[in-house]
Design brief:
With 236 residues, this protein is α/β, with parallel strands linked by helices. Helix content is 31%, strand content 29%.
Amino acid sequence: MPDLAHKKKPIIQCRNVTKTYVVGDHEVHALRGVDIDFYAGEMTAIMGPSGSGKSTLMNLIGALDTPTSGSLLINGEELSALSSDQLADIRNETIGFVFQQFNLLGRASALTNVKLPLRYSRKHITDIHDRAEECLKMVGLGERMDHKPMQLSGGQQQRVAIARALACSPAVILADEPTGALDTKTSIEIMELLVNLGKQGITVILVTHEQDVADYAHRQLRFRDGQLVSDERRSS
């Protein structure tokens, strides 16, 4: 696998990022001086024990929270300088989210679930219906568009969630334990799908506790006590 770090400009830059929470009379240092770059088309797995800072970092990258100090840029834009509306645009259009529990609308069809983010997008999408259909076909659900979540397997539901994340053509997919609720065979299928997205130039950043899932990534980051303690890239 080529070392993408020396060939591309980073799409996400974290510079001395810290995050501190006040819990009662105590300060909790969730992240301590984190410096990381993420690159287009690269899949990165973030690992570490509970409380190590993984989820905090994902929340910051996803523009769901702001650093206490330091700098976080996406496509060269400093997130702390953006308005609430601008941050909402980034969450809807630049970043796609995939969760462990799918988070689908139970009474809506797969097609309707995928259409949802398109209704709030400012991108020029001429036909929401056609784009939603295209995304479901991309994840292999072209024949399941009218099915509701309860009519789909866990793996199919996660595919709908990935299609929804792709709807607004994001540059980045953030996946929080995307295989955590799936069996081994289905986990492999989902990871192969995410790998294929990377080949299309999408940056995939995932949190996982499973080493076999992390092994799909170009790069593995390990956190402990809010600090990045290991940054390893897979050799070609």
